[in-house]
Design a protein that fits this description.
Length: 158
């Protein structure tokens, strides 16, 4: 998968009060492993999202501080910290401590952008969500340009 870093398995900021949208394929994959969708998915607004329990993702084990479904986690979790924000476009979430690190990894960023584009196309089909593709493409180009500018800087890691 694209944004893999051992730090991700211990930071878990993205698991707190998650707003992660689930695709049908996410729900089906997680269900095949014996999880009941009523346990982990809920309709919030116009999307089906991961449930939060005690202000964190239902799959976060607070004792071990680990994701209990890391290998089969939703596509949105796999793409994080790459996100699409209405009115802004594609960006690396500043909440993620590794955002600067990924900004220096142009190949991974480019792969992630392709996967995010596929994710957004599926959102359009499954949820009738309207993506501003002009904004997506311009922000994608800007992000890749910034990445290329940062490529020669030494990446910062936590």
């Amino acid at each position: 998968m694209v944004f893999e870093h051992t730090f991700c398995q211990y930071c878990l900021r993205c698991c707190i009060n998650t707003e992660m949208i689930l695709l049908r394929s996410d729900i089906e994959r997680i269900s095949r492993y014996g999880f009941d969708p009523t346990h982990f998915a809920e309709k919030r607004g116009r999307f089906i999202k991961l449930k939060n329990v005690d202000n964190h993702c239902v799959f976060l084990d607070p004792q071990s501080r680990r994701c209990t479904i890391y290998e089969i986690r939703p596509l949105g979790c796999r793409l994080y910290p790459l996100i699409y924000v209405e009115g802004i476009g594609v960006t690396l979430d500043s909440e993620c401590p590794l955002s600067r690190y990924w900004m220096s990894r142009c190949d991974e960023l480019e792969t992630g952008l392709k996967q995010l584009e596929e994710f957004l196309m599926r959102l359009e089909i499954e949820y009738r969500y309207r993506v501003d593709w002009r904004l997506f493409n311009s922000s994608k180009a800007s992000l890749l340009s910034m990445c290329k500018d940062h490529r020669y800087l030494s990446p910062s890691t936590p």
